[in-house]
Write a structure and sequence with these properties.
Blueprint: H1 5-20, E1 32-35, E2 41-57, E3 67-73, E4 79-86, E5 94-103, E6 116-127, E7 130-138, H2 143-146, E8 180-187, E9 194-201, E10 213-214, E11 219-230, E12 233-248, E13 253-268, E14 271-281, E15 304-316, E16 319-330, E17 333-335, E18 338-340, E19 343-355, E20 360-370, E21 377-387
Antiparallel strand pairs: 1-2, 2-3, 2-4, 2-21, 4-5, 5-6, 6-7, 7-8, 8-9, 9-11, 10-12, 11-12, 12-13, 13-14, 14-15, 15-16, 16-19, 17-18, 19-20, 20-21
């Protein structure tokens, strides 16, 4: 059952109506903070998103028919609680510890497997020189692209009717995932609006831990952001890249995973408009570095892929509405390590947000996803997110 243009517009109108029916006053979100007499600060923040997803997946059933599903799911961001400890400034240095614990909602027939994970465990040292992050946290490459308004607070692409854990957002249909890895990152202070970030990231082993694959050096990632102040907002330009060597000992074969990206985001007069584009080699259309949704990661050793998306959102008071479209694609490639087919992923989204209270946001999405890597689907998403 494909979603016609008329049905798409009807369902999107339903999302708009649902948002408009929620009426309240809203201010700034709150968080929990404690400070002792020695000027140590302890902050607790977090988010809890929960979504009801109604979806139809074309030809998904074993008999070749469509499969319809209604599920309660996590979003692109799982439930998270953050603990931030800030020490007093000493000799011009401020030291922080940042920890994040995450919880995922599961698919059918799963009750108590992998309930919690820790995505971030970071030491942050900052001063006039900028800042250094030492520990585990989000990578650099494509990190500004990931801050999209649509799937960033919602669901975006998901694997199937029984999807579990966090969803994919625009991974593979707009950007490559930065992922959470152990790393060391240096960020310069802002110099006339220009800020540069560079880091050494724990390398990914395509195909998982193996004696047949060597990754002797860290992945190098970097990004420059230039922010321009406008009369009614800001304009952010960015460009970045990454490089990692992979030595497949068993096949006497060596290759590199590499990529570059550019993008821009303007926030002004209630509008938020984003455009992002990237190219990678050794990372396929799925947009996951070293961990691939389709086949063995080594089969994508020489795959050349592109990711891009364009998105617009308008906010009036507590209500936001937007539309977003993006693609991830790769060329067919064959090496001694395997074969990767030609693939294009396309995700069209309409979305709404409404701040019901200072801390509670109503979220709606309407999706149409098409791909050669998984079943095409249409989905209606309704949810709430608690922020504190």
């Amino acid at each position: 059952m494909k979603c016609t243009k008329k049905q798409f517009l009807y369902l999107f109108s339903f999302l708009l109506l649902g948002g408009c029916l929620l009426v309240s006053e809203s201010g700034s979100a709150q968080h929990i903070s404690f400070e002792n007499e020695d000027d140590w600060t302890f902050n607790v923040t977090g988010q809890l998103p929960v979504f009801l997803v109604v979806s139809n997946h074309e030809g998904y059933s074993s008999n070749g028919k469509d499969q319809f599903a209604t599920r309660v799911m996590s979003g692109f961001n799982p439930g998270s609680i953050n603990f931030n400890i800030v020490t007093p400034e000493v000799n011009g240095l401020t030291v922080e510890g940042f920890f994040q614990i995450n919880h995922h909602l599961h698919g059918p027939s799963v009750q108590n497997a992998g309930l919690f994970e820790g995505r971030i465990a970071d030491i942050i040292v900052s001063g006039n020189f900028g800042s250094i992050n030492i520990g585990k946290g989000l990578g650099i490459f494509n990190s500004s692209s990931i801050a999209d308004a649509g799937s960033g607070m919602g669901v975006g692409r998901f694997a199937g009717p029984d999807a579990a854990d966090a969803t994919l957002g625009r991974i593979g249909s707009g950007y490559t995932y930065a992922n959470f890895n152990p790393r060391v990152i240096y960020t310069t202070p802002s110099i006339g609006g220009l800020k540069i970030k560079a880091g050494l990231i724990n390398p990914e082993k395509p195909g998982g831990p193996s004696a047949m694959v060597e990754t002797a050096t860290p992945r190098v990632e970097g990004q420059a952001n230039y922010v321009v102040d406008l009369n009614s907002g800001t304009l952010d330009f960015w460009a970045g890249g990454m490089y990692q060597n992979v030595d497949v000992v068993s096949a006497d074969y060596e290759y590199a995973m590499s990529g570059w990206d550019v993008g821009a985001r303007v926030d002004a007069a209630g509008f938020r408009i984003t455009g992002a584009y990237s190219e990678t080699r050794g990372v396929g259309a799925d947009g996951l570095i070293g961990i691939n949704l389709i086949g063995n990661g080594l089969a994508q050793a020489e795959a050349e892929a592109t990711q891009w998306y364009a998105e617009g959102m308008y906010t009036a008071g507590n209500f936001s509405v937007g539309v977003s479209y993006g693609e991830g694609s790769q060329d067919a490639v064959s090496t001694v390590l395997g074969f990767s087919p030609e693939i294009t992923n396309q995700l069209l989204m309409g979305f709404t947000r409404y701040k019901v209270t200072d801390n509670l946001t109503w979220i709606g999405e309407l999706q149409n996803f098409e791909s050669q890597a998984q079943a095409n689907y249409q989905a209606l998403v309704l949810g709430m997110q608690l922020n504190f």
